[in-house]
Write a structure and sequence with these properties.
Blueprint lengths: L2 H9 L1 E5 L7 H11 L3 E5 L5 H12 L4 E5 L4 H10 L3 E3 L5 H9 L3 E3 L1 E2 L2 H10 L4 E3 L2 H4 L1 H8 L7 E4 L7 H6 L4 E4 L6 H5 L3 H19 L1
Length: 212
């Protein structure tokens, strides 16, 4: 198991940054860093994502782990790694992306929904499997699928909030992916980074309490 994934299992949170306005991106990452967020995923369907990954790795490389999300195919994976992504996350399973990540010795979290997809992703060599979309599937689904597949580390993504993060982690998720619940786009667009920092710090603390 990689050092990065061991750290993720302690931190428990991946902040998903999607469609962040370019003029707000650096203020946002600074707020998350101050809040104690370690794992940040810049999604590749966002304008300027590769430049953000490179810039943030240079500035926060000692403090944070910057990865690429929405890595749908091999070409996107290569671009992300060239930009400096420390891990790759996808909503889908593409075995060529998994193989490439393993060749590059970086973590890969492909997306899956059904038990068959989860097992297939794990057998392909995933570091952990992103179970998505949890907002639609719900906590009960995670509990049911974890029962026979408890040997597979899962990152629950979608629908995780401050009021239920403890339940997701207690149910057995190795970590959770947080989008709108940690990066409120209205606050981002208005540059209200202190509020974002406070909210993110509360989620970091909740994840810590769940671990304890």
């Amino acid at each position: 198991m990689s050092i990065a994934f061991e750290q993720l299992k302690r931190e428990r949170i991946i902040a998903i940054l999607r469609h962040i306005p370019g003029n707000r991106a650096d203020g946002l990452i600074e707020a998350l860093a101050k809040a104690g967020v370690v794992f940040v995923e810049a999604t590749l369907n966002s304008e300027g994502a590769l430049a953000m990954i490179s810039r943030w790795r240079e500035r926060y490389g000692e403090q944070m782990r910057i990865g690429a999300g929405t890595v749908l195919d091999l070409n996107m994976a290569k671009e992300a790694v060239s930009a400096g992504a420390e891990y790759l996350i996808a909503p889908n399973l593409d075995e060529t992306v998994v193989n490439y990540a393993r060749e590059q010795s970086i973590d890969i979290y492909p997306g899956a929904m059904t038990p068959s997809e989860i097992v297939r992703a794990w057998n392909a060599g995933a570091t952990a499997v992103k179970v998505f979309p949890m907002a639609s599937l719900g906590l009960a689904y995670l509990r049911e699928v974890r029962a026979p597949l408890s040997h597979i580390p899962m990152v629950a993504t979608g629908g995780v909030r401050l009021d239920n993060i403890h339940e997701f982690l207690q149910t057995g998720a190795a970590a959770v992916g947080l989008g709108g619940s940690i990066v409120n786009m209205s606050l981002v667009k208005e540059g209200r980074f202190e509020e974002i920092e406070r909210n993110a710090a509360a989620l970091v603390q909740a994840a810590k309490l769940a671990r304890e």
